[in-house]
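User: Could you write out the 3D structure of this protein bound to IPE? I've included everything you need below.
Assistant: Certainly. Input first, then the structure.
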Amino acid sequence: MAESDAQHQPKHPRHIAIIMDGNGRWANARGLPRTVGHQRGAEAVRRTVEASIDLGIGYLTLFGFSSENWKRPKMEVLDLMGLLRRYLKSEIVELHEKGVRFRVIGDRVRLDSDIVKLIEQAERLTKENSRLVLTIALSYGGRDEIVSTSRRLAELVAEGALKPDQINEQMFGEALETADIPDPDLLIRTSGEKRISNFMLWQCAYSEYVFLPTLWPDFGKDQLSEAIDEFCQRDRRFGAAVG
Ligand code: IPE
Ligand code: IPE
Ligand code: MG
């Protein structure tokens, strides 16, 4: 990023990405099955979307299910897909009325076809909205995204439709599914874990990371505001000299 961008950074984060972690521990701590933690996690998603609209955030990206989460027990995967189905059926109309544009990134091929249809319908219905762009990462892995994009570009080169020296950072970024959303300014992870677990590896190159101890089902407007306050105190330099 150019030096002038560092000098003219917006104070407020335009794009917030969240690794929503800790549903299982929230349930375990109460002697409840993990699935209850996931249900309460879905309620936290609702609160966080509302809070983002209230706070004037332009882009919110939520890590809902990673390419590695397919390794979880079959029952838990089924539970999570059931919750996703329910969310898509019950929330989209309201999101649309609120002016939210809904999008999904990730490897759709692995999702059930009825879920893919619901996602496509939701994306079509909300595509003109601009109050908040809500992106959910499903069956998503940062490495997978980089590898599949590279493969696609390699195919274009093999066909003679692209020259290797036309591949640069800008065109690579534009070949990703996230092409039309800015890179996250702020990346939040809940549950106290301090890792990014294969989330938005390309896009978070210069994001500010905030790790909160809160378990995801307890997350809401207060925690979002706390993370934004922390972000506002950071000094983003993008590699430029201090001062
Ligand atoms: C986040 O909570 C939800 C998903 C990853 C799908 P977890 O299910 O990872 O909860 P913990 O980390 O085991 O507490
Ligand atoms: C990351 O959480 C994925 C999502 C929040 C969807 P995980 O719970 O899967 O990550 P690890 O296994 O602790 O790294
Ligand atoms: Mg976890």
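Confidence is low (pLDDT under 50) at residues 1-7.
User: Perfect, thank you.
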